[in-house]
Structures are given as C-alpha cells and as structure tokens.
C-alpha cells in the first residue's frame, strides 16, 4: 500500500479510544452493497481522503469537545459518500487505525546465561531462553496477534478463536489459536524446531520456488525445518517437557546432536566450546542440571571418547568420534 502524508498525532488513551471509535463506527455503518460506480464495479479506496478527513474530524472534536452523539455527526458528515469495496473495507479498517495511531513495537532480549519470563498484552506467557530476542507490539490490534522471535522460547498462548497468534522466525511462520509449545530458531543453527506440548500448531515453511508447505502438529509432535535444504522432518512421541525444561533452570538433553548441545552450553555459560568436525555426528543424552562447566566438559569428553583442551574461556573437543 502506498504511503500517504498526513500529520501524526501524539495520542493519549482518550485520543486512541476516540480514533478507534471513529474508524470502526464508519466501517460498521457503511452501506457496502450500494457502493459501486456507474459501470457496476467496486470503486477504488481513496486513502488520502480518509486520512485527512479523519484527522480533521479529530481536530474539530478536540476543539469543540462536543458530546458523543455530535462527534458521530461530525464523522458521518465528513465521511459520507466515500466509496469503498467490501474487501477494502475489511482491510482498511485496521490500516487506518495503524496510520492514525501506530502501536509501539518493543523488544525483549535475554543475554547469554539468562532466561526471562514475560506476559504479553493478551495474557500469553513467554519464557525467553539465553541468547534470544523477542519483538512484539505494545498491544494487539485487529484479527491477528503477531510477534517475531530470534532464538528460543516456550509459549503458553492465551486462547482467542477470533485472533490467530503468529510467531515469525525468519521465513518460517508458526500459527496457533491457543496452545503451549517450544520453538527454537537461533541464527547460528541450521534448523528451526517447533515442539508442541498442548493444543494444535500449524507451521508454514518455504518449499522453494516461492512455494510453501504447512505441517500441523499435536501434543508430543515436532517439526524440524532444515534452513539450508528447505526440507521438513516431522517426529512423534517427543518428550516436550524434557526439551523445554530449560525454562525451569534445567539443562537436559535427550539424543541431541553434539553441535546443538555445545551451542546450548555456550549460551548457558557464556563460553565458547568447539569440536572437531569428526565429532559432529555424536549425540548426547544427559542431565547437566546444576553441574559445573568443568564437570560437563569431562562427561562430554568421555562420551565422545576424547578430551577437551582449554585456553581461557575457549574449549576445543578432540576425539575419535562416536
């Protein structure tokens, strides 16, 4: 949609309420069935006119401070006769509100060695793992609740059948109505993983040549999307409680690939642990909760039949492999 110049207003709570009422009242009462041009086609939406007229209506309402009924008369007289198609009416209702009174975007960052628990405006609860960033709106408007995640989070989404909850992780989109699940999407890892604890989740992934595929998950199921190959693997009977136990301060691995384990340890302890290429296919099953980094490195060294060389805060794993 094209950008239209108009004066941005500094709005308080009362102004925002008035703006939303003006726009919603207009679209609710518009007789869409009669909005056609002489040829019988839908008429193009004049966004310039809408923006300037609503701003003028707001200014006039502020100066006169009239009652609610007079405010609607001002809005009706300025907006009467505006032609719009049915589809445009549905779309522009929230576009107008976003133009008139944009909702602030916020960020929440969990540094290495840190986890954060947070509640969104709709009541959804989020646990953010170390080395992760969440971008979210101050409040949700319209028919969708959308956030952006870089890293790992466990979400307990408040149920709202009228407003889908969407998590954007790069070019992967995860959509739910109300459920609890774990999503892992770190930039330095080659995969994006979604595991469901309760409810139902739809994960939309790219499939090449501008196409996409949707994978539906129910409890104890997971999808692993390979960012390089654009391939999807769906697994069942997954212990979601174990893999999401990090939100309770635990450090548990079940048949996890060594590179993934080391990345988790790096973020958890804020260190750097590397491994020789021949160890990449090793997998680890262990509970390292409340175990020191030094002892963790000793245990992993035995599991990969090798040893860990330390230089300051950097460890290098060497071994024969698994």
From TrEMBL:
Any coiled-coil regions, as ranges: none
Stretches assigned to the FecR protein domain: 108-201
Keywords for the protein's UniProt record, in alphabetical order: Membrane, Transmembrane, Transmembrane helix
Protein name: Ferric-dicitrate binding protein FerR, regulates iron transport through sigma-19
Pfam families: FecR, FecR_C
InterPro entries: FecR, FecR_C, Ferrdict_sens_TM
Record carries keyword Transmembrane helix: yes
Any one Gene Ontology molecular-function term assigned to this protein's record: sigma factor antagonist activity
UniProt xrefs under PANTHER family: PERIPLASMIC SIGNAL SENSOR AND SIGMA FACTOR ACTIVATOR FECR-RELATED, PROTEIN FECR
Gene3D superfamilies per the UniProt record, alphabetical: 2.60.120.1440, 3.55.50.30
Signal peptide annotation: none
Domain Protein FecR C-terminal: 250-305
Source species, domain of life: Bacteria
Membrane-spanning residues: 72-92
